[in-house]
Amino acid sequence: MSAPNLPEQAIVVLNAGSSSVKFSVFIAQASGALSLRLHGQVEALFNQPHFLVRGADGALMDQRHWSAGTQLGHHGALEYLIEFLRQHSEGIVLLGVGHRVVHGGMSYADPVRVDAATLAALAQFVPLAPLHQPHNLDAIRAVAELLPEVPQVACFDTAFHRSDPDMAQMFALPQRFFEEGVRRYGFHGLSYEYIASVLPALAPRAASGRTVVMHLGNGASMCALSAGRSVASTMGFTAIDGLPMGTRSGNLDPGVVLYLQQERGMSAAEVERLLYQQSGLLGMSGLSSDMRTLLASDSPAARRAVDHFVYRCGRELGSLAAALGGLDAVVFTAGVGENSAEIRARICRQAAWLGLQLDEAANAAGGPCISLAGSVVEAWTLPTDEELMIARHTQRVLMTQ
Ligand code: ADP
Q1: Which one of 57, 115, 157, 328 is the catalytic residue?
Q2: Between 32 and 382, where is the model more confident?
Q3: Which of 47, 123, 149, 187 could be disulfide-bonded to 157 (CB atoms 3.0-4.6 Å)?
Q4: Atom 1 of ligand 1: nearest residue by CA position
């Protein structure tokens, strides 16, 4: 006699940005392991939106274009997505929805099931992550309205860094500010947590030693791991700190902010726009925030922007190696880190003084190990998977909370 067909159990992961909602659907296997079923995004939410979904193998499953001027917004995009999922849900039950939430402040050191009180608490962090947090919360509100019976879990980019020692979290301000939450939080934690989770099987020395992971994408940061736990990060109170990024400045003398406001008459909102949206690779090159465009350009300004990015990566790597008291490994991940052999090579060559010997051929071939056999510092390039990390957390929280 054959076993009855039990419904498959699904977890939907949402990553809502300012103009797009990325989604993934994972199916829980009998063993509890999660496998990707489909993923996609709704882009350009506020003008000529575009919905696209692919299967786990990358094959296009469906897409739709809306006409110019159409404003779907987050609510409309999620309404469309939920209807699409309904139509493809035969034999599937939805266990819950997991969200990427950028800022969890001091209190959220772990993922949490969302209720009205949590949502209100998370709204307090909107000023600390204005590019992300409002949209993350919009998606939670929209799902609560559209699927009120489905539990939702918030997974924080800051949570992984709550293990950083106080020393690494402090600013040299009067202590009361630290107590009130003005401290370095660190971000991209879901990416670092995923990398830390795969290192033991792939790179035991990097897993147990002093490792700097470089998440180099549109947003960019580095995290110092000691035996897989975060001990320091280049990002701080907000996600503008640290490395220069696609459009964000990275660290800056705070006196520049005072000067811009007091002497140049810029308002706080103008400075915010400058630092979050008009700086970094875009601001320096005057051309693009996209590393591929800059690498392909002959413009001196584009070259200068890339040179400065590499220089700043080298400085921050040295700083995190000092925080770790030495360095055993580096790991490159995210859009630039996973795909640009040129940027990896330049950062590694610059880190030769730390004992890193790049294997040029392995790097050009895409790794995963890109250091020579005798290199004092190992170098790796590994794909990150923040969505899988969110799905794992969501599954665990729903089983225990
Ligand atoms: P996000 O922070 O939006 O998730 P990603 O991790 O997708 O960003 O990274 C986007 C960045 O990765 C862009 O600057 C893009 O140019 C860069 N990138 C992607 N592929 C390559 C490549 N082959 N060479 C250089 N840069 C690349």
Answers
A1: 157
A2: 382
A3: 187
A4: 218
